[in-house]
Amino acid sequence: MVKTLITVAPTGAEADKAAVPALPVTHNELVSTAKECEAAGAAVIHVHIRDENARPTLDGARLADTVAALRSATDLIVQLSTGGAVTDSFSARLAVLDAAPDGCSLTCGTVNFGNDVFSNPWGFIKDLYQLTQERQVVPEFELFDLGHVATLHRLLSDYGPPAGGHVHCDLVMGVPGGMPGDLRTLAAAVAALPSGATWSATGVGRATLPVMLCALADGGHLRVGMEDTLTYSRGRPVARNAELVERAAALAALAQRPPMPPAEAREFLGIPPR
Ligand code: KMH
Ligand code: ZN
Questions:
Q1: Rg (Cα) of the chain, in Å, rounded?
Q2: How far is 109 from 223, CA to CA, in rounded Å?
Q3: Per-residue pLDDT of the chain (274 residues; tens, 9 = 90+)
Q4: 57: Cβ below 6 Å to ligand 1?
Q5: Which atom in ligand 1 lies closest to the alpha carbon of residue 13?
Q6: Is the CB of 113 under 6 A from ligand 1?
Q7: Residue of 78, 88, 118 to mutate, ligand 1, most atoms within 8 A of C-beta
């Protein structure tokens, strides 16, 4: 029985702190959220940071401080976002690896993102991938659409295996402009993955629960958090990221695939022990 890897994505780059007071945006809010989510069953934290005005930033010193603080306060695997916000430059997104995280996200294609475009042309994808190999930062391949799976195959075939040697993907489903969060699409995406790859899935907004249940039913892993979902149930805002992790952990336990502790998750993902 393979346990369930739970990733928490507590902040994201899109939600506005003024509209969503429970969103962790300060250093202290992020660290205390991380501790609570670890206690609730998370093994990985997918990190976006904010500046002093709660706006998304890729500031290098802040990122490095955040990595250090999360490492000293938790055993979580620290995965920095290289997606950032839709307004971030490619050079700033590449420079995220200077903060030397355990892992990073690596999105395998451009996607419409509501009224915006999340831009990931091939030239940027391959540069970022080669940088992860050089720095030995383990990438998680973020797939927002079925076409992104084709680019993942091209990346592996042109540049070889990732740092750590294991391919782990995250299906991000239900973004307006990306693949929908339903059973048939999830099955098609999983069937198209490279052989030996493992995968998590996350459903944005109202796709959260269907995607979580489908992923558990099909041997997948879970990502939850306020980056993807601001509503716990109809009309009820998320109060804390940890309640999303608690719900994921409870469903995983019900599926007889309890949460994977961080040390096991490191081995599973090919990330060296701390
Ligand atoms: N904020 C989105 C535009 C990632 O973290 O790598 C991109 C994103 C993906 O969140
Ligand atoms: Zn993200």
A1: 17
A2: 20
A3: 899 999 999 999 999 999 999 999 999 999 999 999 999 999 999 999 999 999 999 999 999 999 999 999 999 999 999 999 999 999 999 999 999 999 999 999 999 999 999 999 999 999 999 999 999 999 999 999 999 999 999 999 999 999 999 999 999 999 999 999 999 999 999 999 999 999 999 999 999 999 999 999 999 999 999 999 999 999 999 999 999 999 999 999 999 999 999 999 999 999 988 8
A4: no
A5: 1
A6: yes
A7: 118
> Is the shortest distance between the CB of 64 and ligand 1 below 6 Å?
no
Cβ-contact 11, 227 below 8 angstroms: yes
**CA of residue 59 to ligand 2 center, whole Å:** 16
d(CA 131, CA 129): 5
Exposed / middle / buried, residue 273 (Cβ in 10 Å: 0-12, 13-18, 19+):
exposed
82 CA closest ligand 1 atom index: 6
Q: Which residue among 45, 142, 172 is best mutated to probe the pocket of ligand 1, counting the most ligand atoms within 8 A of its Cβ?
A: 142
Helix, strand or coil, per DSSP, at residue 178: strand
Query: Rounded distance, CA 113 to CA 132, Å?
Result: 25
Q: Which ligand is closest to the CA of 120, given by its number?
A: 1
- Contact at 8 Å (CB) between 110 and 141? no
Report the alpha-carbon distance of residue 22 to residue 271 in Å, rounded.
31
Q: Which of 22, 95, 17, 89 is nearest to 63 (CA)?
A: 95
As a residue count, the chain comes to 274
Encoding tokens for residue 110? 């451009």
Nearest to 242 by CA among 26, 28, 12, 36: 36
For 115, what's the count of Cα atoms within 13 Å in the CB-facing half-sphere? 1
